[in-house]
DNA sequence: ATTTGACTCGCACACTGTACGAGTCAAATC
DNA sequence: GATTTGACTCGTACAGTGTGCGAGTCAAAT
């Protein structure tokens, strides 16, 4: 009589509260778990409840350590920013250093595709982002850029890199487990119509999504990066 | 006895079903309304329920015309793609045409910041996107690019434009109604710590978020675009 | 007059982020 | 040793989300 069966919990069925066996939750621990979820299943894979269960914690426990989900994402973003490497321009020259930086950022985005959306979410202020920014600014300073041009040069490079890498990454994310070839096949009738109306576009599509799709991506990035660096070189005060 | 007061609806209180006064919902009508919401309040402002009420329709009526929300967004995206203009390369030369295209896309992103995320969501197949792609490919063909280089050249430009414009747009979206100056002030203590550890970054921040922030954005884009085009020019087969 | 097929929509389900307040514990204080 | 404090956890609740389903409504075709 006392207990409805459908009641979510009852004093009798519910286990005792968990003892404090682990020290406590910590920010680092939380960010670790969040990164696991993000890398495994993308932005959509991270929900506060899932994060909670992964930490063997209640759904809302995280909120004591972190103001809200956005803040958590900021922390996660800065954590992965630690992976960016900037070669020393003194030794390698500004162009090699910039190339290394660009490739490093692209690789980061490939490893953590969920960062793409976040990169654009306003200026990044975390310690790792700051350190990286310092280093890459030093590179362009070494190249001779000063004042506004210094930031313009950096911005040109990073905006390009985020653009390409974002594009590349979202492909993986969008259709998980579909190869470029399979996708091309699914496009069959659409492509035929295209041949009639826009042969240029049809040819373009066929050329890109060929079987060596990965290779095309690499070539394309190499091409674009060289363009941007060549362009920057035309603006260098000290050639 | 017959009616519980808390019942969501009752036969007696509920109004008769709406007569078919308007012809029906149409795709165009739906996309129109979706665009209103998107432009006014961004991606987060569009929910199927709000869309329904805006159309004087039930929350799920839209689902007969459109498979799901993603598909609706695809339609909306292609609709705004109609705003992109590509100047005629025969008359203006490829460089001017490419410039016009780039500025046009950037302006589109500024007008519709919610497109940023979507741009990266796989290749766009809608009619307007296709038409635009055809035209811009013609521009680079006119410049002498062929085969893979043709797509690499276009990709370099569009990736850069999406990169910058995405960055610029998300600033507006992120902190609505906060000027660059106000934001700088809120950064006070943070900046002081920065002066000590990363003076280069501190200087950089101060230089960028000055009072002529808008002007900085314009200059930066002009700089970057010129770089990219200069870089592309170094790859042109027929100079 | 009846059938058909185009279209609408209420309800339900499983899920989201997070505010709130009650609860639990370890260490500091008396 | 008893008490207080403050750090931390978490169940519940609320208002929202996208969308499947099935019943319902209507105009046109038969």
Automatic annotation (TrEMBL), chains A, B:
<dbReference type="InterPro" id="IPR004111">
    <property type="entry name" value="Repressor_TetR_C"/>
</dbReference>
<keyword id="KW-0238">DNA-binding</keyword>
<dbReference type="InterPro" id="IPR003012">
    <property type="entry name" value="Tet_transcr_reg_TetR"/>
</dbReference>
<dbReference type="InterPro" id="IPR009057">
    <property type="entry name" value="Homeodomain-like_sf"/>
</dbReference>
<keyword id="KW-0678">Repressor</keyword>
<dbReference type="Pfam" id="PF00440">
    <property type="entry name" value="TetR_N"/>
</dbReference>
<keyword id="KW-0805">Transcription regulation</keyword>
<dbReference type="Pfam" id="PF02909">
    <property type="entry name" value="TetR_C_1"/>
</dbReference>
<dbReference type="InterPro" id="IPR023772">
    <property type="entry name" value="DNA-bd_HTH_TetR-type_CS"/>
</dbReference>
<dbReference type="InterPro" id="IPR050109">
    <property type="entry name" value="HTH-type_TetR-like_transc_reg"/>
</dbReference>
<feature type="domain" description="HTH tetR-type">
    <location>
        <begin position="24"/>
        <end position="84"/>
    </location>
</feature>
<keyword id="KW-0804">Transcription</keyword>
<feature type="region of interest" description="Disordered">
    <location>
        <begin position="1"/>
        <end position="25"/>
    </location>
</feature>
<dbReference type="InterPro" id="IPR001647">
    <property type="entry name" value="HTH_TetR"/>
</dbReference>
<feature type="DNA-binding region" description="H-T-H motif">
    <location>
        <begin position="47"/>
        <end position="66"/>
    </location>
</feature>
<protein>
    <recommendedName>
        <fullName>HTH tetR-type domain-containing protein</fullName>
    </recommendedName>
</protein>
<dbReference type="InterPro" id="IPR036271">
    <property type="entry name" value="Tet_transcr_reg_TetR-rel_C_sf"/>
</dbReference>
